[in-house]
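Objective 1b of the project was to move from sequence-level analysis to a structural picture of ligand recognition. The entry below was assembled by the postdoctoral researcher (A.K.) and checked by the PI before modelling. It contains the amino acid sequence of the target and the SMILES of the bound compound, flavin-adenine dinucleotide.
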Amino acid sequence: MKPSRNFDLAVVGAGIVGLAHALAAARRGQRVIIFERSAQAVGASVRNFGLLWPVGQPAGLRHDRAMRSREIWSEVGAAAGLFLDPSGSLHLAYQAEEWALLQEFAASPLGSSFGRMLLTPKETIARSAAVELTGLRGALWSPTEATVDPREAIAALPAWLHATYGVTLQFGTTVRSVALPQLQTTAGVWQADRVVVCSGQDFETLYPECFQREPITRCKLQMLRTPPQPDQWPLGPALCAGLTLTHYDSFKSCASLAAVVARARTDYPFHMAQGIHVLLSQTAKGELTVGDSHEYGLTLSPFDREDINGAILRYLKTFAQAPDLSIAERWHGIYPKMTDARSELILKPQPGVMIVNGLGGAGMTMSFALAEETLRDF
Ligand SMILES: Cc1cc2nc3c(=O)[nH]c(=O)nc-3n(C[C@H](O)[C@H](O)[C@H](O)COP(=O)(O)OP(=O)(O)OC[C@H]3O[C@@H](n4cnc5c(N)ncnc54)[C@H](O)[C@@H]3O)c2cc1C
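Corresponding predicted holo structure:
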């Protein structure tokens, strides 16, 4: 029997945003098909740290969304047998300004809830052998962060969606155009009642005029990975330090952020100019993922810069140590980012079609819950 070419929902793109929409629709009992242009998704969703990072989201809807997504990741991770390390995070403070900011944040409703708390240097190293003790003033401990392995998860989730919910997978197929109920693809014509377009940084193939009208750009990030650490050495909590405080919106309401930014501009002008802040996470195989830098623009250099990689590693060594910090892999990833205050782009260019894009550096953290919300109104 020929497989059905009629679906309730077609999802374009098998990155985390597309997979999250496929899951949310399948859980509502819909017949879902996922189209992915490549044989396996190789976009932003496999190039990231795999950090589920609620602590970076401001209080309210965005933080709630991050926490709900984390809950879904736990359910899906357990059901699909995925690596998910719930070890939390440590924000480390070495400068007086950074410590003042962490104290201010920890006194706020967001910074004092969910088990978040300040730690002394001694308490900090008791939680992580990777922390550099020299000059450490203290840390913010947050138990809400978790790490998945993006290469493993994004490769495994489509097959799990197929096996668990009967989601049809049409990989190696580009969707060329949509005129509902038809989708024109490189594998012929398919039919669906509705379509969600989760095409990541490809603004040119589907609805290019919609992307041109929106304040959306691209961001290129350089990343590094060590070999697996010897003897199954565990990183424990994901680590970051002062430069990260200048990056996430959760700290933007703190008056003491301005002093941290000023100090960082003085101490780390190159890092600040290249948008470098450094996070450290660990993969299922025990490798350490280290990054990143931020370069913005619709057209980005295809070439990676060793001075940026060097600056990332130099900063890493100010706050972290590990048995093997040699570099086994280097790459860059690109995500779309809104240049206005929005944390994502949701467009409905024609009845039955929804574009979901522009999640910036938080797609792994936010997508599962966002998909539940967007499909509720679609
Ligand atoms: C280096 C880096 C580090 C990051 N770290 C984190 C992190 O730790 N935590 C976090 O929460 N977020 C992180 N992010 C952000 C996160 O990775 C992104 O927000 C997220 O992956 C975006 O997912 P996406 O599905 O929109 O895009 P993508 O993963 O790029 O997927 C889009 C897919 O659509 C397919 N496609 C496009 N057009 C078509 C078409 N016409 N037909 C068929 N298929 C099509 C593409 O082939 C692609 O596979 C990071 C991003 C980068 C780059």
